[in-house]
């Protein structure tokens, strides 16, 4: 059940914190109605309650709850700190009501466990211990300071305490609260954290499966497309050669024809390489390479595809290069990322390479308009594109290839202009004379 008017999910599902606060409001409503019925029964039975302060406190709590409903309607985001304050407000509000209602002898004193349980289920353990500690302090205060009610006193006593000391029943209830609060705070927090961890792992597993299905669909389409493109590419190659023979007297046109011929050769070579890589006998073949040699192979392939784009390359690390595991899919993944940067920044892009004793990092910066924040949230996990004519599959394929090699891709907007793409991959051998810090220095230099 949800508070009316707070569940508009036409565009996005409600956040868990918002739903939890709605449920807390529902709990408060139920408790408020129970308190009203208890208050009405006390008035009908003519019990000697101090109705004025109790009704004042209940009215104040009702105003706070109305404000929370208004706040959720206009600002749905709820932080852990705010939720903690709500629970502490419930503890203090209950303490004030119990102070005028018999203190620790009131049966409602066990309600102190409700905020503790809620905190243990959804908040960090430090917050839960804070709620449990404050609840215990309030409970202990109510053992000695309260307005007594004769109806709650034991039949054989005129007061619930003798000589200023609470009776054994009240002390037993207090001890039971301490044990219950401690068990809830420790074990429920542990169990809730384990459930959250399992949910996160399950969500990651589902996202990975969805991405793998997308990659499989793309691979299937690519195989058919590669077969279909062979014939038109051969036809265009023949026509371009005939055009070169027919327009020998036009140097400007011959230059354009030569460019077309080079691009056709590159396309045919890419198709041949893709078919070769798809061969099951070559699938999963990993070789070892030094980083500069691998980067040189990447740039050699990329320069044929985008000769018009200026690339500023810098290797920051000094000393002997470590060995790394590479394969054809990793090379193609980095080429795809360079192509994305070139599409966003045709005037030029920057690439820096660095390594330390644990990993090597490649950073690509473009000078385009940057990645839209909405697209950035899904980039690499769903088929989305920041380009009008982009298909949105390049980043998914690149990220999958890099992660398969034990790497990680992160994308962020540059503080001045453009986009930064960081690729971090492990190395095979630790180089003792290589500093552990260059990778972070590379990030700082690139962002500057």
Architecture overview:
This protein has 448 residues and is α+β, with helices and mostly antiparallel strands. It folds into three domains: 16-208, no CATH class; 214-278; 287-447, Heat Shock Protein 90. The chain has helices at 16-44, 51-74, 80-99, 113-122, 125-144, 168-246, 251-278, 291-305, 328-344, 373-376, 394-404, 438-447; strands at residues 161-162, 165-166, 287-290, 311-315, 323-326, 349-355, 359-365, 408-413, 419-426. It has a five-stranded mixed β-sheet, with helices on both faces. α3 runs antiparallel to α4 (113-122) and α9 (328-344) packs antiparallel against α11. The chain starts with 15 loop residues before the first helix and ends with a helix. Residues 1-14, 155-163 and 430-448 have low confidence and may be disordered.
Helix share of residues? 55-70%
State the low-pLDDT regions, or none.
1-14, 155-163, 430-448
The 3D shape can be described as: elongated
Strand order of the largest sheet: 4-6-7-9-8
Q: How do the SSEs run, as a string of H and E?
A: HHHHHEEHHEHEEHEEHHEEH
Secondary structure tally, helices: 12
Estimate the mean pLDDT confidence: 78
Tally of DSSP β-strands: 9
Number of domains: 3
Distance between the termini: 52 Å
Largest sheet: 5 strands, mixed
Strand content: 5-15%
Task: Give the secondary structure arrangement, pairings included.
Blueprint: H1 16-44, H2 51-74, H3 80-99, H4 113-122, H5 125-144, E1 161-162, E2 165-166, H6 168-246, H7 251-278, E3 287-290, H8 291-305, E4 311-315, E5 323-326, H9 328-344, E6 349-355, E7 359-365, H10 373-376, H11 394-404, E8 408-413, E9 419-426, H12 438-447
Parallel strand pairs: 4-6
Antiparallel strand pairs: 1-2, 3-5, 6-7, 7-9, 8-9
Helix pairs in contact: 1-2, 3-4, 3-5, 4-5, 4-6, 5-6, 6-7, 8-9, 9-11
């Amino acid at each position: 059940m949800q508070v009316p008017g707070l569940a508009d999910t036409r565009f996005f599902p409600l956040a868990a914190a918002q739903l939890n606060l709605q449920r807390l409001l529902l709990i408060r409503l139920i408790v408020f109605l129970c308190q009203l019925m208890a208050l009405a029964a006390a008035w009908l039975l003519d019990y000697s309650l101090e109705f004025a302060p109790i009704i004042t406190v209940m009215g104040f709590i009702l105003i706070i709850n109305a404000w929370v409903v208004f706040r959720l309607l206009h600002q749905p985001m709820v932080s852990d700190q705010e939720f903690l304050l709500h629970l502490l407000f419930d503890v203090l509000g209950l303490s004030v009501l119990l102070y005028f209602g018999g203190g620790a002898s009131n049966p409602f004193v066990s309600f102190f466990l409700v905020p503790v349980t809620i905190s243990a289920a959804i908040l960090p353990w430090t917050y839960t211990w804070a709620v449990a500690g404050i609840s215990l302090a309030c409970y202990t205060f109510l053992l000695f300071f309260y307005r007594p009610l004769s109806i709650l006193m034991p039949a054989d006593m005129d007061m619930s305490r003798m000589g200023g000391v609470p009776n054994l029943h009240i002390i037993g209830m207090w001890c039971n609260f301490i044990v219950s609060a401690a068990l809830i705070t420790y074990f429920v927090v542990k169990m809730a954290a384990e459930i959250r961890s399992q949910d996160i792992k399950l969500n990651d597993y589902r996202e990975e499966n969805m991405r793998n299905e997308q990659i499989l669909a793309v691979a299937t389409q690519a195989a058919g497309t590669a077969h279909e493109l062979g014939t038109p590419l051969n036809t265009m190659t023949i026509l371009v050669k005939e055009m070169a023979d027919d327009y020998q007297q036009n140097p400007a046109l011959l230059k354009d024809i030569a460019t077309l011929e080079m691009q056709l050769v590159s396309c045919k070579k890419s198709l041949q390489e893709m078919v070769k890589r798809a061969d099951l006998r070559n699938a999963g073949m990993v070789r070892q390479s030094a980083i500069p040699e691998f980067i040189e192979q990447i740039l050699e392939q990329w320069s044929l595809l985008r000769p018009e784009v200026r690339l500023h390359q810098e290797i920051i690390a000094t000393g002997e290069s470590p060995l790394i595991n590479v394969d054809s899919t990793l090379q193609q993944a980095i080429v795809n990322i360079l192509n994305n940067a070139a599409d966003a920044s045709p005037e030029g892009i920057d690439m820096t390479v660095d390594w330390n004793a644990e990993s090597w990092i490649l950073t690509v910066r473009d000078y385009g308009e940057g990645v839209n924040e909405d697209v950035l949230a899904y980039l690499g996990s769903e088929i989305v594109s920041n380009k009008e004519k982009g298909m949105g599959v390049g980043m998914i394929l690149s990220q999958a290839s890099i992660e398969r090699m034990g790497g990680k891709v992160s994308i962020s907007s540059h503080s001045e202009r453009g986009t930064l793409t960081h690729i971090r991959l492990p190395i095979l051998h630790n180089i003792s004379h290589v500093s552990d810090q260059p990778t972070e220095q590379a990030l700082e230099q690139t962002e500057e």
